[in-house]
Amino acid sequence: MERRKVVLGVLFAFASGFSAPASAQQKIVLKATDVHPFGYPTVEAVVRMGKKLEQATGGRIGIQMYPSMQLGGEKEMIEQAQVGALAMARVSVGPMGPIVPEFNVFNLPFMFRDAQHMEKVIDGPIGDELLTKLSAHPTANLIGLCWMNAGTRHVYNSKKPIRSVEDLKGLKIRMMGNPVFVDTMNALGGNGVSMGFDQVVNAMQTGVVDGAENNEPTYATGQHYRYAKYFSLTGHLMIPEVLVFSKKVFTSLAKDDQDLIRRLARDAQQEERTLWYEMEKKSIAQMKEAGAEIIDIADRRPFQAAVKPVWDKYGAQLSTLIERIQNVK
Ligand code: BDP
Q1: Residues with CB under 6 A from ligand 1
Q2: Given Cys at both, which of 123, 268, 276, 309 links 45, Cβ 3.0 to 4.6 Å?
Q3: 102's torsion region: left (phi>0), alpha (psi -120 to 50) or beta?
Q4: CA within 13 Å, CB half, 89
Q5: Is the model's pLDDT at 261 over the cut of 50?
Q6: Among 1-15, 37-51, 125-139, 255-269, whose mean pLDDT is lowest?
Q7: Ligand 1: which of 68, 77, 92 to mutate, most ligand atoms within 8 Å of CB?
Q8: Is 287's pLDDT higher than 80?
Q9: Cα distances (angstroms) measured from residue 89 to each of 182, 189, 221, 246
Q10: Closest Cα to atom 2, ligand 1: which residue?
Q11: Termini Cα distance of the chain
């Protein structure tokens, strides 16, 4: 037994999803990453989870957070988790759609009625089923641990206030890497340009795109207002985040440790939510102070009508799930 521990420790030190000092304690350090900086709700929730994990295991297991895209954009993060080069990645459901098609149900424009609806879905049986689906996926090589809030996404650009679907015409808007988003922007009349989050600022700065779309906290912490001051409340997407764990790393952990990680992730799901709402308020204030122009859209119905082709294209294969989500009251 003692011998096995030492061997594992050495393995952990080599496989970069872990690192362990060659000391007698064999501490397991789980490498985690996020595109956002320290202090952002998703990052903070995982950092807190790490502290709880250390406490619960008497310091035997911890989490080392690599924030701010230190390990690349989300595509890179997912790939690193898949091969076990890191243990945990907190990503948007956006780039997960191409991996697990059912996840795309959360990526459909105007899927949720409001934040409460979305929370009820991720907290309930549908949320659980989708996490299980991810974990059971034969080639995804990921374990789905929990969901997190990520607000509502709105379009922002450097050229003009968007008030109507017509205003979007001709604008190049960065979208996350998933065809459903490019189709969504194109259906709205703009030109959807797909790229990783790690390229967004540069693309806005150099005029490769005229703008992007995201929630207030991302816009504010990423200082996107410096390049795209017109922030129009289109509310076209409400996409939760997902915390994924490398299957390769997960299966090498003891069953009790796996259960503990799952339980603490569920706590993180709720804890992040509180942090999220505080951050949203703070971000709106920060945006205003930075000179962003927030444009209200009194009637979103024309935007909803414009994305019908996206629902026609992707909705058929997701129809059962869509109906179940719509029936969550
Ligand atoms: C943010 C998500 C982050 C995504 C980013 C994006 O928190 O996971 O990478 O959007 O637009 O809201 O790529």
Answers
A1: 35, 74, 91-92, 150, 176, 197, 214-215, 218, 241
A2: 268
A3: alpha
A4: 31
A5: yes
A6: 1-15
A7: 92
A8: yes
A9: 24, 33, 19, 8
A10: 92
A11: 52
63, 47 Cβ separation under 8 angstroms: yes
Token pair for 270: 């709720």
- Who contacts 206 (Cβ-Cβ below 8 Å, separation ≥6)? none
The pTM of the full predicted model, rounded to 2 decimals, is 0.94
Query: Which residue from 152, 176, 224, 280 has its CB within 8 A of the most atoms of ligand 1, so it is best to mutate?
Result: 176
Does residue 12 register a pLDDT over 50?
Answer: no
The answer, yes or no, to whether residue 64 has pLDDT greater than 80, is yes
Q: Which helix (H) or strand (E) element contains residue 168?
A: none
For the purposes of burial, counting CB atoms within 10 Å of the CB of 100, is it exposed (0-12), middle (13-18) or buried (19 or more)? buried
- pLDDT of residue 86 exceeding 80, the answer is yes
308 C-alpha to center of ligand 1: Å? 24
Question: Exposed, middle or buried by CB within 10 Å (0-12, 13-18, 19+), for 31?
Answer: buried
